[in-house]
Amino acid sequence: MLKLKTEVLQLDSATTEARITRFITDYIEKSEATGVVLNISGGVDSCTTAALSSLALGGSKVLGIFLPEEETYDTDDTKHTKMVAEKFGFSLETIDISSVLEVCYHSLPVYEERDKVSKGNLKARMRMVFLYYYANRLNRIVCGSSDKSETMIGYFTKWGDVAADISPLMDLYKTQVRQLALHIGIPEEIARKPSTPRLWPGQLAEHELGIKYETLDLILFGLERFMTPEEIAEQLKLPVKRVEEVKRKWLATEHKRRGPLTAKLAYRTVGADFRIPYTTQ
Amino acid sequence: MPRRINIAVAQINCRVGHKKRNIDLMKKHAKQAKEKGADLVVFPELSLTGYLTRDLTYNLAEKIPGPSVDSLEQVAEKENLHMVFGMLEHSDKARGVIYNTAVLLGPKGFVGKYRKLQLPTHSVFEEKRYFRPGYQLPVFETDIGRLGLTICYDMFFPEISRLLRLKGAQLIICISASPAVRRKFFEVFTAARAIENTVFLAYANLVGIEDGLQFWGGSRIVAPSGHIIAQAKYDEEDLVTGEVDYSDLKRIETFVPTLRDLRPEFFDSLKTHTEDL
B98 - beta bridge partners? Predict the structure, then answer.
């Protein structure tokens, strides 16, 4: 039986770097865009995505947009975004979105300060709005930085941080992103810092999820390979309930990973049986 | 029948749905192959249209012979070489019946075709959604030897190469659209099919990216001993040539006598157990 050990997540980082940079370059060339814009938060995923984009396209074709807001402002994030932008030579723009968010809160008749999830999702979606405005203005595409761990369990904002034209890291688990980050020269203090979506003060991903990424990634790796929760739990010496909870999160959040579900009414249907390749005409 | 031939494997980066561009690319590489002394140039699976054509398949398919085959026949004639390439073929009798086909052209025109037997429909592959499988496995007697054609996933089924060899093939040609995650499989299969059948094998794989799927290239010409006669680069367009000397077959057949040692009684058992799977 497949052994769920840390080694199964060991990445061939050089090959992965080559595949991802080729993927980015190829998409930009075929889409005839002039480059990428991306949200850089100071975390490992976005710093790695920005660095890989820069390695693929050259820094002049990469714009990292840092979009802090007052509730979750963190000086380390500011320092880290600058550090990576300087090292990999891409442009960096900082826009404080606090005032725009304030306007939104006050424009919403049903706004509720205590509902931190709805409020947090608004922040993630606001960042998406800024990114796509820049992409339109500059004839660029939005490059996402979601990883596989968070995407699989639905730990993201629908139409928010996950919204992008391409997602080069989406097939890498968080622990693999960290390996790749170190391989391409992302400083250790960024590669190893605790992940946070920065949707509300003090939010830390592993605390909120109640599980370490090292364990979560092995559970997801097992589920990806059709192992049962019992088999995974036995190998990782975890309660079956814990693994089942991860599986439930994965399956219950499929709606977040797809386009809208369509009622099948006609001959060929968008989102169902239209299967059109990405290609230039 | 020549004793020696020179083979070129041309791994090209096709553009999905752009037949004219892809024909131009094949023209350019055929010329290059001829300049390197090739008698035969092999292009990847579905090199006329790109691999992941999805619903565009129905409008990109052509009859064989048809306009694209006509264009490429002119190339083979002009360059005075044989060519193998891949295309979407629709049936004469039913426009919606489509095959994933390998076409063999010679300096005097169309020689023959092979319709893919094994259609992968798992993981990222959805060939059975679009294609009807072929039912024939011909060996072509040509001026450059007895040639058998296969396509990509066929390599996973040793009985296909074995049958071609038993029908007299000296050279098995495999055209492929293999993504990078399957590289290790094909590196093993291409050598294994050559060794177990004591036959030469020419493998041409796509390069480039279609819908996020990266093709790894690594096209190769393999001797019956498993020796790699020529190998193209990974991941980028390339054309390599290598010489095949059919007189080596006798020596290898003696050293590794797999054909002598074949046991036909197991084949009946294989059939029974496959039906009962």
Answer: B90, B131
Spatial CA neighbour of A95 closest among A129, A120, A69: A69
Q: Count the alpha carbons within 13 Å of B118 in the hemisphere toward its beta carbon.
A: 17
Tens-of-pLDDT digits for all 277 residues of chain B?
778 999 999 999 999 999 999 999 999 999 999 999 999 999 999 999 999 999 999 999 999 999 999 999 999 999 999 999 999 999 999 999 999 999 999 999 999 999 999 999 999 999 999 999 999 999 999 999 999 999 999 999 999 999 999 999 999 999 999 999 999 999 999 999 999 999 999 999 999 999 999 999 999 999 999 999 999 999 999 999 999 999 999 999 999 999 999 999 999 999 999 999 9
Please name which of A236, A256, A33, A53 lies closest in space to residue A135, comparing C-alpha atoms: A33
Alpha helices per DSSP H over B2-123? 19-35, 57-60, 67-79
What chain B residue is nearest to A170 in terms of C-alpha separation? B212
**pLDDT tier for residue A280 given thresholds of 50, 70 and 90:** low
**DSSP 8-state secondary structure symbol assigned to residue B218:** -
Task: Quickly state the pLDDT bin for A121 (edges 50, 70, 90).
Answer: very high
Residues B166-196 as b or e (16 or more Cβ within 10 Å = b) = eeebbbbbbbbbbbbebbeebbebbbbbbbb
Strands A62-66 and A91-94: parallel
On whether the CB atoms of residues A49 and A56 are closer than 8 A, the answer is: no
Q: Which of B14, B62, B152, B174 is catalytic?
A: B152
What DSSP state is assigned to residue B133?
A: P
Cα angle at B38 between B35 and B44, to 5 degrees?
105
Beta-carbon separation of A279 and B16 below 8 A: yes
Q: E strands, B116-185, where? A: 139-142, 145-151, 171-176
Burial level of B275, CB count in 10 A (0-12/13-18/19+)? exposed
DSSP class per residue in A193-220: SPP---SSTT--HHHHHTS-HHHHHHHH
Complex ipTM tops 0.85: yes
Where are any strands of DSSP class E within B50-138?
A: 82-90, 98-106, 109-115
pTM of the predicted model, to two decimals?
A: 0.94
Q: How far apart are CA A271 and CA A90, in angstroms?
A: 36
Q: Which helix (H) or strand (E) holds A241?
A: helix A240-252
Distance CA A26, CA B215 (A): 13
| Chain B contact for A278 (CB, 8 A cutoff) | yes
Q: With an 8 Å Cβ cutoff, are A23 and B210 in contact?
A: no
Distance CA B112, CA B105 (A): 7
DSSP structure class, residue B117:
S
Query: How is residue A43 written in tokens?
Result: 């975390």
B116 belongs to the catalytic site: yes
> Could you tell me if B135 and B109 are in contact, meaning their C-beta atoms sit under 8 angstroms apart?
no
Instruction: Say whether B45 is catalytic.
Output: yes
Tell me the angle at which helices A174-184 and A213-224 cross, rounded to the nearest 10 degrees. Answer: 110
